[in-house]
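Feature request, filed as a ticket because there's no other form

It would be nice if the structure record came with a short human-readable summary line next to the C-alpha cells. Right now we just get the raw output. Example of a typical job, pasted below so the devs can see what we mean:
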Amino acid sequence: MTTSHSSLLFVLALLALPNCSLAQEAATASAADIPPAQSEEDTYRQLQMFGEAFERVREKYVEPVTDEQLVEYAIKGMLSNLDPHSDYLTAKDFDDMKVQTKGEFGGLGIEVTMDQGVVKVVSPIDDTPAFKAGVKAGDLITHLDGKPILGMTLNDAVEKMRGKVGTPIEITIRREGVAEPIIMSIVRDTIKIQPVKFRVEQDSIGYIRVTQFNRNTYDGLKKAIDSISKDTGDKLIGYVIDLRNNPGGLLDQAIAVSDAFLEQGEIVSTRGREEKDIKRDNALPGDLAGGLPIVVLINNGSASASEIVAGALQDHHRAVIMGTRSFGKGSVQTVIPISGDGALRLTTARYFTPSGRSIQGKGIDPDITVEMAKVEKLSEMGFHEEDLKGALSNPNGEQKPSQPAPANDNEIGDKKDGKDADQQSETDKDYQLSRALDLLKGLSLMKDGSK
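Raw output as currently delivered:
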C-alpha cells in the first residue's frame, strides 16, 4: 500500500510540472474551466486509478520499461486521443519542429495527419521526393517498408519516414478511385523549402506560388511583387496567388500575407474555451498589389494558414477564390514547452474568418469551382460562315484568319514572358491556372471598359 501511495505522489508530481509550464505560457485552465460535474474527489480518484495502472505496468509488464518511457507514453496517449493535431513532442521532436519552421529539414516532403489509424497526406511539398514520386493530397499511407501503420502514433509514423539522406523507404498508398494499393520507393533527401516562387504570365499577370508559411514567406511575397512590378511596369493587370497543396504553417505569416493585400478590417479571429480567449488580428493600411485584381487558387491540399488567407481575402471581397474546397483545418495548436526539454502541441482555439465562419471541418468554398483537368490544344474543327459556298465577303476587306499548325507535345507556342517551351507547356496543362488567367484578363477588360 505504501508503494502505491508513493507511486501516486510521484505521478501527481509529474502531472504538476506541465501545469507550471502552462501557466508560464498563459494557456492554463483555471478552476472555472473544470466542468461543474467534476469534483476534486473525482479528480483524485481518477489520478489514483492512473497511479495504480502505472505501478502495475512497471511491475508486471513482460519487459522492463523505464518510468520515463511510461510517463511519455501516458502523455502521448492523453494528447493524441483529444484530436488529430494534439501531441507530445519529445526533445528531439521539438528540435525538429523548430528546424522545420526555418524552412529546411530532412525527410520525404509531405504534410500529414492521422485519419482512422492511417496516415493521410494533407499535401506534398513542391519539388520534394514525395512530390516527384507522385504522392497526392488525400492519399492514405497504410504501410511503411511493408509494415502496417495501424497502431502507430502520428509521430511514430513521421519518425519512421524520416531518416538518413539518400536512404530509400517503401510506402504503400491507398488512393480514392484506384482499386489496388500503390507502392512507391522514395529516397529521402534534405528538404529545402522555398516558400514563394513567382513568374510573369502572358506579359501582364503576376503568378505567385506560396508553398508553405514559414519564417520567410512574407519576405518572399514582397520580393515577388517587387520583381513582378519591375518586370511588367504599366502592363501589369493583376495577380494569381497559388495556395494549392499548401499545408499551412505559421499563423503570423498567414496574417502578414493577408495584410499585404488588405487596407483595413479583421483578418482572422481565434477563439478558445472562454470569451477572454478571443483574439482578433486586423489589417494595417497598405496594399502591396496596389488595388489590382487578385485570383487565389485553392484545393483540398490547402490547409490551415492557407485557409486563413483565402478566407480573409474572400470575406473582404479583395480576391476571387477559385478551385475546389480547401482541407478544413480550422484549429489552433499552441506549442508549450515543458520540463525535460519536450513540449505539448495542444489544440487551444479555433480559427474564424472575418465574417465569423469557422474553417474547421468545412474549409473554404471557392467563389468559382474549377476542378483539376488536363488541358489539350486541339486543332479547330467544323466551319464558320465564311466557309459556306457563296458567303458574302467582309465589307471592310478583312480576310479569314489563317489557322495555325497544331502544336506537338514538345512545341506549344513560342517563348512568352521569358519562358521556354517546357515552362509554357506546364502552364497550358494547368487547367485551374488557365482559368484564373482568363478571369484576370476579363476583369481587366471590364475595368478598362468602365473608364
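Something like this underneath would help us a lot:
The longest strand covers residues 343-352.
The domain at 104-192 is CATH 2.30.42.10 (Pdz3 Domain).
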